[in-house]
Specification:
Layout (H helix, E strand, L loop, with lengths): L7 H15 L5 H7 L10 H9 L8 H24 L7 E6 L4 E2 L7 E2 L3 E5 L4 E8 L14 H14 L3 E8 L3 E8 L2 H19 L13 H4 L11 H35 L4 E3 L5 E8 L2 E6 L6
Parallel strand pairs: 5-6
Antiparallel strand pairs: 1-4, 2-3, 4-5, 6-7, 8-9, 9-10
Helix pairs in contact: 1-4, 2-5, 5-6
């Protein structure tokens, strides 16, 4: 594989421009957050809101960007080699482009798509490329296909570009690759468009934070000080509901502990509990950290 040379100054400027543009637009990873499929539980609409309004922290990312850029270019070259070796497939193409400019939605200019590459097929069709790198421990997450948050990213890209399909080229550790194709989905694109418009119009343009999604986020939107509020009948009812739920949770935990203890005594030296047909119902382990009962979950029909 040939060496990929990188102009560090232009790369740093490109990244700075990209980071700034993301503050004034909604991209693929943002869309995943807005439809409820974030990369992690830490990515919420409220966090997304603050990332758009707050000035980004200045960091020297030169070395990181150099390695990242070189690796992306190498992975695109790997994809090029793979596709050329399989030209009899529907992926036969005239050319592959990288370093493509940012795409903008024709009607909503705050919807952007930053693509890793573009294929122009022999029939003239445009197909986007998304490059991902994953470690070996993440491979299991891809056994059933592309993770949901990446699917939502790609649906956003197709919403912006108007294209019908996208390729996701993922590298796992030790040079193992997988290629996935995702087709445009009108339902999810409608959801993405609706949520994006609502978020932009109701929160970004008005600078009004969305409601917190977690208990931790409550402190981010709470005022520093305000006069105490006199409880209404509805407030009192909610407090009673919370007290009741907490009491029921404690009772349930005690019942669970008692039942698990009795089941452990019943199993004793038997590691597995089955029904009459041999289906596993529970497993039992005993070690230095105590006894552990695992109840098998019912499969959803």
């Amino acid at each position: 594989m040939r060496q990929v040379n990188v102009d560090l100054n232009s790369l740093a400027q490109e990244e700075a421009d990209f980071v700034e543009s993301r503050r004034h637009s909604i991209g693929g990873s943002d869309a995943a957050v807005l439809v409820g499929c974030p990369y992690s539980s830490e990515n919420t609409p409220l966090q997304l809101y603050f990332s758009k309004l707050d000035e980004p922290e200045k960091k020297d990312l030169t070395n990181f960007l150099m390695v990242k850029k070189r690796r992306e270019d190498q992975l695109l070259e790997e994809l090029f080699i793979f596709l050329k070796a399989n030209e009899q497939t529907r992926y036969a193409f005239k050319r592959m482009e990288k370093n493509v400019p940012t795409f903008k939605h024709p009607e909503y200019d705050f919807l952007h798509a930053n693509l890793d590459g573009v294929l122009t097929l022999v029939n003239g069709q445009k197909v986007g490329i998304e490059i991902k790198t994953q470690n070996a421990f993440a491979k299991d997450k891809w056994d059933k296909g592309v993770p949901e948050y990446i699917q939502m990213q790609v649906q956003h890209y197709m919403l912006v570009t108007g294209w019908d399909s996208f390729l996701v080229w993922v590298e796992f550790s030790h040079g193992e690759f997988s290629l996935f194709e995702i087709q445009a989905n009108a339902f999810w694109q409608d959801v993405i468009l609706k949520r994006s418009k609502e978020f932009w119009k109701n929160h970004i343009e008005t600078q009004t934070p969305p409601p917190p999604s977690t208990k931790k986020e409550l402190s981010l939107t709470a005022p520093a000080y305000s006069e105490p509020k006199i409880a209404s009948a509805e407030d009192i009812d909610l407090i009673e509901q919370i007290k009741k739920a907490k009491a029921e949770k404690k009772k349930a935990a005690k019942r669970q502990l008692k039942a698990e203890t009795q089941l452990a005594e019943s199993l004793k030296d038997n590691p597995v509990l089955t029904d009459a047909q041999g289906n596993c119902l529970a497993t039992y382990k005993s070690g230095k950290n105590g006894r552990r009962i695992n109840i098998k979950k019912e499969k959803v029909a």
